[in-house]
Amino acid sequence: MGDEKKEMTELQLAEFVKKQVTEGLKPFLKVERPEAEKGVIEKPLYNSFGGFLQSVVNHDKTLAEYVEKTLSMDSDPAGGYLVPEKHIPGILKVASEDGIVRSKATVIPAGTPPDAEVNIPVLNQAGAASHDMFAGVWFQWTNEGGAKPDKEPAFDSIKLAPEEYSASTILTDKLIRNAKALEAFVKAIYSRAQVAYEDYYFLNGNGVNQPLGIINSPAYIQAARTGAGAIIIADLLLMLAQIIPGGKYEWIISRSAYAQIINLADAAGNTVFIGGDITKGVKDRLFGYPIKWTFRVPALGAVGDITLADCSYYLIKDGFGPAFDTSKHVYFTSNKTILKMFGNVDGQPWVNGTITAEDGATEISPFVGLSV
User: Fold this and answer.
1) Percent of all residues in the chain with a pLDDT value above 70, rounded to a whole number
2) What residues are paired with 120 via a beta bridge?
3) Is residue 97 included in any domain, yes or no?
């Protein structure tokens, strides 16, 4: 009965934390980009993304009209042309469906101005005492007529300031003249590259002019690995014991650990890995949680080779972008054009450190991995 009561307390805490930070986000989630404002654009200027790209390459009059109608706030000819709002979902579809972190993270839209810093409130739960789990709020026994405890939750804040990232590719003039082929090519290249780039830094970033990744954050627990260069069931059980209860967790595991994971077996020889079915969209699972295999984390034996994470505790602040600009100068004699693709984004965990559970001893977090 005592354990059941404790479990309910931890679940209630998780809900309390989510409610507080969600309330703090509401002002930002209501912000829309100028292009979405009523009366700004009477009709879409670009029926296809390929047509938009052709305008960027040729710097034609339609593009100038597009910049004027979007108030020039998010479409600066000196810095590139923002993709029309209606075509952004098509470009980011791969990121939203296949991205490891973004697909589950809490994403704050660009807003106006798009690259402005935002400070997001967070409960200050970091500390070594059990009451720190509740951000300093702790009930006390009081005598009749005695002074009542006066405690309020301790809040901290997380600053998100979108940083610019960019990439470029070379287009032939023949490809540029074919709007449909151009659209298909750029969507495939841009989307896949962006997914890989974002995931790498949302997981591994050091926070200096780039996102602070999950693995390098103060909230990341490194449970003691049993044997160097290996992952065994005892390690996984230790990780499971240190997650905040009630979350939507996924395993993020290096592909280099694939053979070890699928061969994991208990003392009776029963395999604990459950294979999925890619044809039905069913993911591989481990102890009931889905697995995302990736090469975007450190290899087997390093910190971060396996992580159990609830990525809804990761904040992403989008900024200006995605945007495109071109230059014909470098490859003018070769009938080729450089297409530059860029945007701004920042990200970091929504918790400012690990948390001490009510037992006064267990360190818990929404992000748990293994030590070296």
Assistant:
1) 70
2) 158
3) yes
For β-strands 306-309 and 367-370, DSSP reports them as: antiparallel
Looking at residue 68, its amino acid is: E
Our measurement of the distance from residue 368's CA atom to the centroid of its chain's CA atoms, rounded to an integer in Å, reads 16
DSSP class of residue 87 equals G
**27 preceded by cis ω (within 30°)?**
no
More confident residue, 106 or 2: 106
Measured distance CA(328)–CA(308) in Å, rounded: 47
Number of domains in the chain: 2
Q: For the segment 266-310, what is each residue's pLDDT rounded down to a tens digit?
A: 888 888 999 998 888 889 999 999 999 999 999 999 999 999 999
Which DSSP symbol is given to 85? Answer: G
131 part of a folded domain: no
Q: Which of 208, 234, 228, 202 is nearest to 313 (CA)?
A: 202
User: Identity (one letter) of the amino acid at 272?
Assistant: V
Q: Could you tell me the pTM of the whole model? A: 0.73
What six digits make up the tokens of 281?
């969209």
Report the SS3 class of residue 22: helix
What CA–CA distance (Å, rounded) separates 297 from 45? 41
Phi and psi at residue 222, in whole multiples of 5°? -105, 95
> Residue 147: CB partners within 8 Å, gap ≥ 6?
none
Distance CA 172, CA 236 (A): 50
In this predicted model, what pLDDT tens digit does every residue of 94-126 receive, in sequence order?
Answer: 555 578 999 899 898 887 778 888 888 776 666
Same domain, 296 and 342: no
Range of the domain at 81: 2-123+158-213+318-349
- Asked if 324 and 280 count as a contact pair (C-beta separation under 8 A), the reply is no
Instruction: For 238-272, give the secondary structure using H, E and C.
Output: HHHCCECCCCCCEEEEEHHHHHHHHCCECCCCCEC
Tally of CB atoms within 10 A around 230: 14
